[in-house]
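Dataset card, provenance and construction

Sequences and ligand SMILES were collected as paired inputs. For each pair, a complete structure of the chain with the small molecule in place was predicted and serialized as structure tokens. The example below shows a pair involving 2-oxoglutaric acid. Curators did not alter the output after generation; any descriptive sentences attached to a record were derived from the structure itself.
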Amino acid sequence: MQSPAALATHPAATPRVRELESSNHLLGDRAALDAAWERNGYWFFRDVLDRGAVARLRAVYMQLLGGYGVADPADPEARYNGASLEGFPFRMDPLSKRKAWQPFVREPAIHAFFRHLLQDEPFWIPTVEYRATPPAADRTRSRLDFVHQDGFYNKGIPFRICWIPLAEIDDEVGGLILGEGLHRGPILHDTQQPPLYPIPEGAVPADRWRRTTYRPGDVLLMDLNTPHTGLANHSDRFRLSMDIRVMGANEDPPMVGRLTVVEAHAVELEGEDGRSGRFVVDEASYCRGLDGQQVPLADIATRFHVGDEVILAARDGRATIMRPIH
Ligand SMILES: O=C(O)CCC(=O)C(=O)O
Ligand SMILES: [Fe+2]
């Protein structure tokens, strides 16, 4: 492992990409917000989230980094100290387990922002990624981690992706880069290439990429079909961000709850918000396992269990999507 000093002096391959368009001036104007979304496939808001709330979430990350001995929890820059990352939970499972997103979205100022933005009660879909990405060890690879459209893997749940930086993320640290105005076009994933169905190189024209230097308080919302990826971290710091998905409570959100019955062709679910019921699972249902791969219909009864927490979307008593909450 290189020392942090060596990492810091390594030349960063900074892509020359245009800035995200800010939609701050459109807040409160539903029609203008919708028009920006239709045109660009995202809203970027600068310095709108309560920085105290963001700092409290960041502190949870820093505690974990400190606990694993890979950064000083008091370091405002979250620099990687070079200690071994063996055993470091790259998916931040301890934060998933304790649902670190919940206290954050319940912060009154955070709730108020999204309530105002959506002009509806926010419904949070607990598909959450906590990212504390260490500096990339291999800097010869492309900086585009994995370009994708979330919609390709989440058909039927029309959420907005909500990407939240918890610290400054400049172009060396990387952060999120997206293709502007491509969300109403064709799905870009190559359906001939299972199991990952990658988006071919060049499918996002070079002049469509957008990013910015993200700061605490900023938030980026993206359409589920906006192509995007994280950029490899070429700094000496951890990249700290959280992404979660949101809808309006009146936009027919999926159910979130525990399975109470699992049969070969049906499940019963008790939803957290009181919605519950019995749902047929058939060929038209898209069921995903914890590994993100589709679960064959024949395996439903063995791969899902009573007590599992799942996200389930249904139409006319039939499950359209069922996936576990990790
Ligand atoms: O933060 C990243 O690296 C990727 C984020 C992402 O794919 C998402 O928010 O859907
Ligand atoms: Fe994504």
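Derived descriptions for this record:
The radius of gyration is 20 Å.
The pocket of fe (ii) ion (ligand 2) is lined by residues 148, 150, 228 (CB under 6 Å).
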